[in-house]
Specification:
Elements lengths: L1 E6 L2 H13 L11 E5 L10 E11 L1 H7 L17 E3 L3 E9 L11 E4 L6 H4 L6 H4 L26 E5 L3 E3 L6 H4 L2 H13 L7 E5 L3 H13 L4 E5 L3 H10 L3 E3 L3 H12 L2 E4 L5 E4 L2 E6 L4 H10 E9 L12 H5 L3 E4 L12 H10 L9 E6 L3 H9 L1 H4 L3 E5 L3
Parallel strand pairs: 9-10, 9-14, 10-11, 14-15, 15-16, 17-18
Antiparallel strand pairs: 1-2, 1-4, 3-5, 3-7, 3-18, 5-6, 6-8, 12-13
Helix pairs in contact: 6-7, 6-12, 7-8
The chain binds zinc ion (2 copies).
One zinc ion binds next to helix 6.
Length: about 400
């Protein structure tokens, strides 16, 4: 079978940093660290594993970061141990075709998606588990790299087959269509982010960014706290239209400077300009969800939040940044990060909640999937992703032939 994967090979990574200056798409062709190449079909390595025949998989910003190695080697996650070959494709749906002899929670024919995509205590069968895995925070596993997983050759969503430990998947409820199911993972991310700082009735909420995650955050806020007023910031008209359909009360577009004026008017915040072009708002949004997570969005979020308000960062950024964080202490702002999703013993199960919201149409994801490509045309999918504005792209899905 052919699979899309990234090799953690320093030479290839260095070479790409040079070749990509000459050729924009160097990352998509050999000898780049990302390869779409023939690999053997994965075999389950033990009685607790299952094998899945994949159907479709969404292309996520994280995949793009990894394909283009758009990350500074000095950042924190770059030092995580134990991952030498990373198979790409985590927003997958597929069908169980084989189960190990100990597996009784899944059977052949079950429709599944991937929940735990990280070598945590679960797959490594570490007993006792670390405190994070015990609490259901599998993305925050402290035992990463402690034990070599039974196999690195697992495949993932951008391959026709993959294997998972029986603790990794989430069983897709019958009520969900395949298209809804392929959005389960990003919906779980949005739901987890919103629950990190749940808005109160009447709160003014800002969502920065209207890509897949931003749009799903809008819908998740609406589902979780219908009495919140939601303002979104979009870059393109097509994003603005769907943001309104997903539940945004208003959508702002324009430059950062325009935003200060608009936000000041919307939230009755006082707008002050300093001597050197620095701007502040006194007052602002109660809760800000930042689906971009880069220097400028975090810098702005800190200024657009009222004193004592909350910011949740859902966007990921693999480059160390420079921000003026003075509003953090000056305005006593609460800044929270999120990493994907959880299964919390206190009742928060991000996937379960996402599935219920999608099934009940409290999150109506119609219109989020804008493009589909056969897996073999993944390069076209990546190029479409990189020119989202031109193509009107939100979620791009790759399909395997059945
Ligand atoms: Zn993703
Ligand atoms: Zn752990």
């Amino acid at each position: 079978m052919k699979a899309l994967y990234v090799e953690n090979n320093v030479l290839k990574i260095l070479l790409l940093s040079i070749t990509s200056k000459i050729f924009k798409y160097a990352a998509l062709y050999p000898p780049a660290p990302a390869r779409y190449a023939e690999v053997g079909e994965p075999q389950i390595p033990g009685p607790n594993w299952i094998k899945i025949k994949n159907k479709s998989c969404g292309l996520c910003g994280t995949d793009i970061h990894l394909i283009f190695m758009d990350m500074d080697p000095k950042i924190f996650p770059a030092a995580t141990p134990g991952i030498y070959r990373k198979y790409l494709g985590h927003e997958m749906i597929g069908e169980v075709v084989e189960t190990g002899s100990n597996v009784n929670n899944y059977q052949k024919g079950d429709r599944v998606c991937l929940r735990i995509d990280w070598p945590s205590c679960f797959q490594m069968e570490i007993n006792p588990m670390c405190r994070q895995c015990q609490a259901g925070n599998y993305m925050l596993c402290e035992n990463l790299g402690k034990k070599t997983p039974p196999t690195e050759h697992t495949g993932a969503g951008f391959a026709p087959y993959m294997i998972m430990h029986h603790t990794q998947p989430f069983k897709i409820p019958d009520a969900l269509t395949d298209d809804e199911a392929v959005l389960l993972e990003p919906t779980a991310v949005a739901v987890h982010g919103v629950l990190k700082q749940k808005p109160k009735p009447g709160d003014k909420v800002l969502v920065i960014g209207c890509g897949t995650i931003g749009l799903l955050i809008i819908s998740a806020v609406k589902a979780i706290e219908p009495q919140a007023e939601i303002i979104a910031i979009a870059r393109y008209d097509f994003q603005s239209r769907i943001a309104k359909k997903m539940g945004a009360n208003d959508v702002f577009m324009g430059s950062d400077s325009d935003m200060y004026e608009k936000i000041s008017a919307k939230t009755d915040a006082r707008y002050h300009k300093g001597y050197f072009g620095n701007k502040i708002l006194l007052g602002g949004f109660d809760v800000v969800y930042d689906s971009i997570g880069n220097n400028s969005s975090i810098n702005n979020a800190l200024r657009w939040t009222r004193a004592g308000g909350n910011i949740v960062i859902l966007g990921i950024n693999f480059r160390p940044g420079k921000i003026d964080y003075s509003p953090l202490w000056h305005q006593e702002i609460n800044l929270t990060g999120t990493n994907c999703h959880i299964v919390n013993k206190n009742g928060e199960d991000s996937f379960e909640l996402a599935a219920n919201f999608l099934a009940e149409k409290k999150i109506d994801a119609q219109g989020i999937i804008t493009h589909r490509f056969p897996m073999d045309n993944y390069r076209d999918a990546v190029k479409t992703f990189l020119a989202k504005g031109k193509h009107g792209a939100i979620k791009i899905v790759l399909d395997h032939h059945q």
